[in-house]
Amino acid sequence: MAKFRPVRASAKRTGRPQGAAGCVILMLLIMVGVMVFLYLVMKSNANG
To answer: Would the CA dihedral through 20, 21, 26, 27 be positive or negative?
Structure first.
């Protein structure tokens, strides 16, 4: 009697999604923008 094995997909490495680099850059730009905004707010409200 034949032995049946479950069919396995060929072992392919899953690469990163195409938009991953753009998303990381966008997140970094948002973080920098928030930090600059907070810096300007604190600078304008300084008692000096």
So the answer is: positive
Task: Name residues of the chain where pLDDT drops below 50.
Answer: none
Q: What amino acid occupies position 29?
A: L
| Residue that has been written with the tokens 């970094």 in this structure | 28
CA angle 17, 13, 10 (to 5 degrees): 125
Furthest C-alpha separation in the chain: 90
* 22: number of Cβ within 10 Å: 10
Instruction: Determine if the pTM surpasses 0.90.
Output: no
How many angstroms separate the CA atoms of 12 and 1, rounded? 32
